[in-house]
Amino acid sequence: MGALENKTYRRLVLIVGYNELGWEYSSVFKQKLGSLIDGLREVQPDATLLLQKIYPCSAKGYAREKDVAPERIAEYNAIFTELAQEKQIYLLDPAPLLMDENGELREELTADGVHLNTEGFAIYKDYMKTHVEEGKNNEKMECIDLDGADDHRLSKPGQAEREERGGSDGTAEPESGS
Question: What is the mean pLDDT of the chain?
Fold first, then answer.
């Protein structure tokens, strides 16, 4: 927190990874993450806060990581959604661009089933740039309650959100359906 006191930031992105899935009590994790969000707000009161959901592993990744399971990721992503509502912060979800038809991390985007390779990271980086950088399609940011959004210069969060997933060449394609 001390480092954040020396400079003013417009946006702060909070990314929690697979290592956090090992908490014995998810309720304690939620309380600690909520306190962290409150602390960030205290230190950077004018910054827009964004919380990223955890994207899935591949079957290979689930097999190698003892605390990582689809159910556990879903449980923590539900906590993130609850906190986004409670704390009135933005929620980012890169998973649709990285998942295959089984809801797992696409094999071609990872070597070990957990971490993104160069191709996977390029997709992730483009997602983050699109959703976080100034003047770059910020309407794709999802905010649980628009009235609670800190940054009124953004387009209406969630209103223009499309369900997307990555195509076989790593580009985004609209999901069919409607």
Answer: 77
